[in-house]
From TrEMBL:
<feature type="compositionally biased region" description="Low complexity">
    <location>
        <begin position="52"/>
        <end position="89"/>
    </location>
</feature>
<keyword id="KW-0967">Endosome</keyword>
<comment type="function">
    <text>Plays a role in short-term synaptic plasticity in a subset of GABAergic neurons in the brain.</text>
</comment>
<keyword id="KW-0732">Signal</keyword>
<dbReference type="GO" id="GO:0005886">
    <property type="term" value="C:plasma membrane"/>
</dbReference>
<keyword id="KW-1133">Transmembrane helix</keyword>
<dbReference type="GO" id="GO:0005765">
    <property type="term" value="C:lysosomal membrane"/>
</dbReference>
<keyword id="KW-0966">Cell projection</keyword>
<feature type="domain" description="Lysosome-associated membrane glycoprotein 2-like luminal">
    <location>
        <begin position="109"/>
        <end position="261"/>
    </location>
</feature>
<keyword id="KW-0812">Transmembrane</keyword>
<dbReference type="GO" id="GO:0072594">
    <property type="term" value="P:establishment of protein localization to organelle"/>
</dbReference>
<comment type="similarity">
    <text>Belongs to the LAMP family.</text>
</comment>
<dbReference type="InterPro" id="IPR048528">
    <property type="entry name" value="Lamp2-like_luminal"/>
</dbReference>
<dbReference type="InterPro" id="IPR048524">
    <property type="entry name" value="Lamp2-like_TM"/>
</dbReference>
<keyword id="KW-0968">Cytoplasmic vesicle</keyword>
<keyword id="KW-1015">Disulfide bond</keyword>
<keyword id="KW-0770">Synapse</keyword>
Amino acid sequence: MFASKLLTCSALLIILLLSNAVFSQKSISWPNVDIKVSNAFLEQANPLASRSSTTPTSSTTEKSITTISSSTITPTTSNITSTEPPTTTAPVISTTIAPQPYPPPSVGTWNTSCIMLQMAAQLNFSYEAKGGNITNGLYNIPSNASVEDSECKSQTTQFIHLIWGPETSKQSLLMYFDKSNDTTVLSSIQIHLTLLPEDFTDAKENQTVQLLHKSDGEFKTPEKMSYHCTRDQKMNMTETLDAKQLIGWITVSRVQVEAFRMANDTGFSVGHDCDSSETSDVVPIAVGIALAALILVVLISYLCARRRSTSRGYMSF
């Protein structure tokens, strides 16, 4: 009886020892499993990190893990195209100042005992340049020109003489007026012009231009009246110098002139405008005759009608 109990206790003890041995064997393998899981987790979280340790092998063959070194990954930038626009330098634009137009002439006023003149005048003429070519030039008659001389004794032809410029080379303008049949007209304009270097830089040296205009009834005005015209008037001028015929013109504007004035006259007389219409005396005479004839016809018709009505009244009795 005692022997059977002893055997039973021994068997239980052996079973306990075996079970402890198995439990201890299994508990020893758990750290390895924990380590494998943590390493795998780290590999998934950071695949580019370098691994220097190797995984221990077991009885079962495991796949080898290839280590990737971050030093082997070299980014290349040669194929990257920049999207920024290229820097361009704005071109330098050179501005050329356009030549200024020739200034318009100023109005001058000149007075003598028999002629009073007010006008602005500009010359446009041809002259010889230094290279021998013929070119055109503009020149304004100065408004500060002075009266050099005048002719007031004659009752048929009078003139006014204007001069300006340096003493060594005086420039001049003469205007002649004729009177005929109680009408005054401009007969001619004469201009003597020395081409000074300060006025004509490209002109041939020591060149003098003489311009002449023969009038064809300009500035025509009745006696005891002044000629008035504000618009531009162009008059052709010719020159014969060294057997060369040069053509130009003079443009006058804001003109008022009166010749054959009395010595004691002050100011201009009543102005005769250049654009005023001149009606012939035949027209008003013809209109007057037509109106008189019409009135006469109406009067005769009225008298005849009245006479008839009176005669009919007597017959009724």
